[in-house]
Amino acid sequence: MLLRCREGQSGAVDLPDTSASAEFPGRPGTCRGQGWSAYPQARAAALVECGTHAVFAAHVAPLTVHETALAQELFASLTPGMLLLGDRGFRGLDLWRAATATGADLLWRAKSDAVLPVLAVTEDGSYLSQIFAARNKNRRADPTRVRVIDYTLGRTDRDTTVYRLVTSILGIRWGTRSGCRRTRRRPCGCGPFGRDGSGARWLNSWV
């Protein structure tokens, strides 16, 4: 089974310097000059199809609205059979559960120093773990099971920076060989995920 890959993106965007833009969404404050920025700004979040870069869902709000709140506005566009990629800014168990409730699978980057207990190690080097809401962290109550992939991109032993991905995909989903070939290389096309190719093996086996 091949999953349609989608990526969640968010960020601040400059708007034309007009009275309408200044009124909504407004200008961010600064500590210099008149106390506000030269251009009005808005916060935007979008779902983008990987490969084609087509934007098929977007939401815009004032900068006072957090990106996680904007992201939840986009989840209605997710369906089963999609794989949603997300950066470290998209975090929190409530947001994770809201996204998985759509039937889509998730593959989100996480902080490498996040405490994720190892429940079971798989043959491909990834491992099963649990995540908790901040309100339940100390009691370790109401967990959600995830799979964790740690990998490096360095070409030498001196580059030991560890990157971490967390996914809702817990079991094997076999894809076609052509689909696996498309996922074996990084977007820049300069080699496999990880110095030992562990990321590529994971994608071949689980997506």
Class based on secondary structure composition and strand pairing: alpha+beta
Name the poorly predicted regions: 174-207
Gap from first CA to last CA: 7 Å
State the assembly state of the protein chains. Answer: single chain
Give me the Rg, rounded: 19 Å
Overall shape: it is globular
**Largest sheet, spatial ordering of strands:** 3-2-1-4-5-9-8-7-6
- Counted by DSSP, the helix tally is 5
Largest sheet: 9 strands, mixed
Task: List how many beta strands DSSP finds.
Answer: 9
Strand portion: 25-35%
What does the average pLDDT come to? Answer: 76
Topology order in helix (H) and strand (E) letters: EHEEHEHEEEEEHH
User: Roughly what percent helix?
Assistant: 10-25%
How does this model look, in words?
This protein has a domain at 111-207. Helix content is 18%, strand content 29%. It contains 5 helices and 9 strands; from the N terminus they run βαββαβαβββββαα. The protein has a 9-stranded mixed β-sheet with strand order 3-2-1-4-5-9-8-7-6, sandwiched between helices. A hairpin with a 5-residue loop joins strand 2 (41-49) and strand 3. The radius of gyration is 19 Å and the shape is globular. The relative contact order is 0.13.
